[in-house]
Amino acid sequence: MKLIGRLGHMGIATKQFFYLFLVTLLLFLLLAWSNLSEAETLLKDQVTKDAELLVARTNQYIDATLDNVENILLLLSTRQDLLESGSQTEVVRTLQSFADYNSSVVRTLYFVRSDGTVFSNTQVNYDIIGNPHLEELYAQALGNYGSIQVSEPYISPLSGRTLAYMMPVKDRNNEVQGVIIAELGLDLLVSRISPLIYQAFTLVTANGNVINRMEAGERLLPVMPGTYPPELLPEFTAKLPGLKTGADSMTVKGERLIAVKSAKNRLGWSLIAFIPEDSFYKDLQPLYGNYRNATMLWIVILLFSAYMLSRTLTRPIRGLVNKMDRLHDFQVVSKLPENRRDEIGRLARSFNAMLARIQHLLHETKRAEEKKKEYELKMLRSQIAPHFLYNTLACISSMAKQQKIDDVRKTIRSLVGLLTFSFDRQGEFVALEEELEGLRMYMHIQQVRYGAKYGCRIEIGPELLQLRVLKLTLQPLVENALFHGLAPKGGGSVVVTGTVHDGRLRLYVRDDGVGMSRGDIRDAYRKQAAEPSRHSFTGIGFANVHERIRIHFGEPYGLRIGGRKGVGTVVRVELPLSQPV
Question: Domain 384-576 - what CATH class?
Answer without folding.
Answer: alpha beta
